[in-house]
Amino acid sequence: MDTKIRIYLADDHQVLIDGMLSMLKTNPKFEVAGYSLNGENLVEDVQISKADVLVMDINMPKKDGIEVLRDFATKGFCCKVIILSSYDDVKIIKEVLKLGANGYLSKQSAGENIIEAINAVANGEEYFSQSIRDRIFESFSKIPQQSYINEAMPLSSITERELEVLKLITMEYSGTQIGEELNISTNTVETHRKNLIKKLNVKTTIGLVKYALKHNLIN
């Protein structure tokens, strides 16, 4: 039998916890390891539960999600973390990703996306719900062309076409979709992606998105 993904839930609303418990327990791949209604002692509780994935509200009594992430960053992450929030402020998204979160779900879409998100982060990927990706792209598209040139040395070599490709990558467009959007071949898209990865010294496509966040290509 395949090993189940152990999940720990943290939210100050019992109704939401109950809803997620009901949904997750119907999936044979998942095992709910426990839950908390506040952030106090959450790091220790998650460690004891041996959870693989923590789904955590950003607003909680006693200790909020940002503080919990800082605790994890100090003590060492024992699991993947998905932030669950009513906020789609890109500054908050940037902060939690810099602190080590692996995913960000809006509460409005959690019911539709939570299973997909858990599977993604458990497999080493990062996950943004569609509304969050939209907010990231919206903020990205507002950056003046000149603003990225002096941000960091690697950015100075990015061409306008590569920046267009990078914007669409943040939207999780496939190579084919990017090619159709920009009227270029899939091979050309792949060349731009590889050039971006090399120029920005990252390892994966997700690394490109995180680089854009870190260096304020997305405000």
Automatic annotation (TrEMBL):
Biological process according to GO: phosphorelay signal transduction system; regulation of DNA-templated transcription
CDD domains: LuxR_C_like, REC_NarL-like
Annotated positions of the 4-aspartylphosphate modification: 57
Keyword Transcription regulation listed: yes
Species for this entry: Flavobacterium microcysteis
TM region(s), chain numbering: none
Domain Response regulatory: residue ranges: 6-122
Molecular function via GO: DNA binding
Protein name as catalogued: Response regulator transcription factor
PANTHER family referenced in this protein's UniProt entry, alphabetically: NITRATE_NITRITE RESPONSE REGULATOR PROTEIN NARP (PTHR43214:SF41), TWO-COMPONENT RESPONSE REGULATOR (PTHR43214)
Cross-referenced PROSITE patterns: HTH_LUXR_2 (PS50043), RESPONSE_REGULATORY (PS50110)
UniProt KW keywords: DNA-binding, Phosphoprotein, Transcription, Transcription regulation
